[in-house]
Amino acid sequence: MEQKFSVSGMMCAACVAHVEKATKHLEGVNECNVSLLTSSMLVNFDETKVNEKDIVSAVKKAGYKAEVAGDSVSVSAEKQGALLKKRLILSVVFTLALMYISMGHMVGAPLPDFISPNENVIFFILAQMILTVPVIILNRKYFLGGFYSLFHGTPNMESLIAIGSGAAFFYGVYIFIVSIVSTVNNNNDLLHSYAETLYFESAAMILTLVLLGKTLEAFAKGKTTVSLEKLIMLRPKVATRITEKGEEEVQTSLLKPGDILSVKSGQSIPADGIIIKGSASVDTSAITGESLPVELSENDSVIGGTVNIHGYFEMKVTKAESESLLSEIIKLVSDASASKAPIARLADKVSGIFVPGVIGIFIITLCAWLISGADFAFSFNCAVSVLVISCPCALGLATPVAVTVASGKGAQLGILIKNARSLETVGKAKTVFLDKTGTVTEGQASVDQILPNGKNTETDILILAASAEALSGHPLAVGIVKAASEKGIDLLPAENFSLTEGSGISAEINGKKIFIGNRKLLDLSGVTVPPDLPLGSGRQIPLYVVYGNEYVGAVMMSDKIRKDSAQALKKLSEMGIKTVMLTGDREETASHIAKEAFIKEYKASLLPSDKNKEIAACKERPCIMVGDGINDAPALAEADTGIAMGAGTDIAIDSADIILTGSSLTGAVNAILLSKKTLKIIKENLFWALFYNTLGIPLAAGVLYPAFGILLTPMIAAGAMSISSVFVVFNALRLNFFKGISAKN
User: Fold this and answer.
1) What is the rounded average pLDDT of the residues 681-698?
2) How many angstroms from the chain centroid is the CA of residue 434?
3) Tell me, what DSSP letter sits at residue 311?
């Protein structure tokens, strides 16, 4: 079972590592992926060994809160940013007042005598301490969470902030107490020296700058979920339902299969369904990524969330809101954001030892400077700077922000990515295997010719073929049934339908056995094959018809190449990716299609199991399989990444890692391009996070001070730490500008 949980209290990569570790230690948990960006966790577990309560309890013991996520998707990053903004404004007010008192006199700013360091040292110190306390109270979350995690042996970023700011504050309290003692003893020289070694402003400024970074980060993170918000906003709130009493407005959440709805021009389609009356021009771009409107009429399917641009129709609801395609898309995008890419393992390994390592460097820095002869104030300054400049946040956000933006952008382009692993793997592909029918070609085969044998007429053959094929959903079958419908032919009742993989179908009509398929099925039927058996030419596909143990004729089918297939295949070639077409059709048809689509390598006359074997034998990996039919499902599962065309069957979609809601092969190319761009962003983010800490920690420790006099204050360190996190998020937001290639070009 796979369950999604909401997790609160996480701030950095170390938090993610602790939550994952606590959950994975439970017996029965197979896999756990935690996302810092979405504050969520996807857990795959054995229900017989562990349950949701056990998982929630384990997370709580690690110092965080968890609960089972609801069915609806909520985007709360901007709301969180609004709350942080209020805290930030108050923190800034108190911090600025504190900075004025502590440093204003150094530049000649006037101070009342009762808090002047020259006139009244005790009240000078007391005023700073009083102004620091509200900042600490406003940001108490860092202290409560940080020390809780520290005491439970799972230190995180909050622990670093709590130690750094807390040490600066309590050192100031210590100076205040010592100052009172000096006053009592009339030691004025010592009293004035204490006034110069206060760190109240550092304690407050650390918290305020960290809060500033978190506020900017929250608003930036809100922008990463813009695509998901747009998908959620596509859901119409109300629908017009037709009843026996007339029309009524009803909430779309209350619609159920079988309801009849009316949809007027300009309205959003409320639910998935079938048009039963009327016609319309429908904008499906928000779902499929295809910019041109689609003309739909009776018996055509419609998708909830798309828009009726022009026309009027009545429709029958086929799926409840929770089961609609739009709901599935929203769930896929949300789950993909919560999943973890393999490249994130580096960040996981580093974050597991990062915070304890930083605390160790803090202690070493303090001791090393004290041993070298430096005074306590200088040593303390360096040690605290080490704590606050360290940034596991950037490390933890490096991958998930990019995955979230990419998943949302992909959905806008009609590319639904099931998980982060697929997003990473597809961009590394060296070989792309392609199904022919419905992938390279339009998948809407039409009847070219009917060639009767003996006394049968073309109409006789079409009636028999269409009656049997009406029980099949294969593109060739659809073409035959359509041809019969266009001629107004009434179909005969057929029964005992059977599919022979890679060959064709069989059924019974009027008590007689009928076979329709290729030469393999013709041989299996046991009939005498005529010497002048039609073979077809070019892209023609012959379907032989056997009825009552007699060969009665052939239906010659053809399937046109998609207009954008050549463009997509050319782009794959430019990227250095090898393409191989796999088809069950005969050699002549496959050769013609491959030549027309500029495909250099193809395999014809394959059974579904043969496609599987071809992919398994591929040496140039990772490899992709792009297909849309039932017979493609095993191959989609065998490939490193399976891409299912949106017009395909449910079983093909279930077997795929990436789903194209449109019917264009350019979607597969865009999935690869988006993956490559995302991987580049992730690598940049990881490099920045690691480079920043590699450079920043030694600098904060004062390594360059003896030779160059370069020294960071805790305030500068806190500002640098905040900037690093914000940089990572905004770098990932560049993925929103990704466009890919257009099927129109």
Assistant:
1) 87
2) 25
3) E
Paired with 308 in beta bridges are: 282
Domain count, the chain: 6
Residues 396 and 533 in one domain: no
Residue whose structure tokens are 């650390």: 206
What φ, ψ does residue 348 adopt, rounded to 5°? -60, -45
Q: What is the pLDDT of residues 253-306, one digit of tens each?
A: 899 999 999 999 999 999 999 999 999 999 887 776 565 688 899 988 898 888
Domain co-membership, 434 together with 570:
yes
Does the active-site annotation cover 532?
no
Examine the fold and report which residue of 501, 531, 558 is the final residue of a domain before the chain moves on. Answer: 558
- pLDDT tens digits, one per residue of 589-644: 888 888 888 898 999 888 777 888 899 999 888 999 998 765 677 888 889 999 98
SS3 508: strand
Q: At 535, which CATH number?
A: 3.40.1110.10
Cα angle 404-37-397, degrees, rounded to a multiple of 5: 90
Tell me, yes or no, whether 94 and 212 share the same domain: yes
Domain that holds residue 419: 415-441+562-669
653-676 as b/e: b if 16+ CB within 10 A? bebbbbbbbbbbbbbbbbbbbbbe
316 & 355 share domain: no
pTM of the entire predicted model: 0.68
List 335, 435, 628, 657, catalytic entry: 435
Q: Is residue 224 domain-resident?
A: no
Of 715, 720, 674, whose CA–CA distance to 697 is shortest?
A: 720
Residues 392-437 pLDDT 10s: 667 767 787 888 888 888 888 888 888 888 889 999 999 999 988 7
Tracing tokens 């999604």 back to the chain, one arrives at: 4
